[in-house]
Write a structure and sequence with these properties.
The protein is an alpha/beta fold. 40% of the residues lie in helices and 23% in strands. A seven-stranded mixed sheet has the order 3-2-1-4-5-10-6.
Length: 270
């Protein structure tokens, strides 16, 4: 019987997508301001996501890859303590600023990545959360580490499409030449957990992305420049844009079809 090595598949297919634009922390250091501005508009979405978490007032929570604190800040208002971890210095700066503005005294912001983080440097937590942030090379070790530091519940939110944060069609254009796109992060992580003896629950929902552009040409140019694509791919990008873009009022809205998975399990401490 052939046993699939999901850890190896992650290293071949998924990790290269995370580091396509260089070191992850460097990329986010450059794009923090845009990220914060966009996320700040989605407070309603955040509140919906919080409702599905099993949080208690006495809980300690670890937010892996906390970004600008989209989940960290509202969670801190509901629990005893939050450890907010991110590799980007600029992201952590914004988290600290938000903590100060909200007058919170129960958030510890930590500037490092999950692979390097020493879990013995903090207490064991009740709940661990990772939202589209497991851009690690050793995914099995990252999951084992999460299990080791957590006393009760683990939630991993990750993309459930082969193109990850991109529409599958666009991902084939952007990454298809260099990276094989066979499985989603959600499928890899779910099956890897099963091989580790962890029976997780999984729930998949639509997570479509809309971006605004002045013209169709602007949308094409944005994709070409953002992903540093060669001129030979412009025709394919334009075909994709024309199929997915709609004019709304005075602007164009480009739709990317995406799905996101919530993978959840309760830690068995024996």
């Amino acid at each position: 019987m052939c046993i699939v090595n999901w850890d190896s598949i992650w290293k071949i297919e998924k990790y290269p997508m995370w580091v396509e634009n260089g070191k992850i922390e460097d990329y986010w250091d450059k794009n923090t301001a845009k990220r914060f501005k966009r996320i700040s508009k989605n407070r309603a979405v955040t509140e919906k996501e919080l409702k599905i978490l099993n949080l208690k007032k006495t809980d300690t929570v670890l937010d892996i890859g906390c970004g600008t604190g989209r989940l960290t800040i509202p969670i801190a208002k509901k629990v005893r303590k939050v450890y907010a971890l991110d590799a980007s210095r600029e992201m952590i700066k914004i988290v600290k600023k938000c903590v100060e503005e909200e007058k919170l005294n129960n958030v510890q912001a930590i500037n490092t990545n999950w692979e390097l983080f020493d879990i013995n440097s903090i207490e064991k937590v009740d709940v661990t959360i990772s939202y589209n942030s497991l851009g690690v090379y050793e995914i099995r070790k990252a999951l084992e580490k999460s299990n080791e530091i957590t006393k009760r519940d683990i939630y991993i939110f990750t993309f459930a499409g082969k193109g990850e944060w991109l529409d599958d069609t666009l991902a084939k254009i952007v990454y298809g030449k260099n990276i094989e796109l066979r499985y989603s992060s959600a499928l890899i992580i779910y099956n890897l957990l099963f091989q580790m003896g962890i029976s997780a629950d999984i729930e998949i929902k639509n997570n479509h992305l809309h971006s605004e552009h002045e013209t169709i040409d602007d949308a094409v140019l944005y994709i070409m420049q953002f992903f540093k694509l060669s001129d030979e791919l412009e025709e394919k990008v334009r075909e994709f844009v024309i199929k997915r873009i709609k004019k709304e009022n005075d602007k164009y809205s480009l739709l990317q079809n995406r799905k996101i998975a919530k993978i959840y399990w309760r830690v068995d401490n024996g």
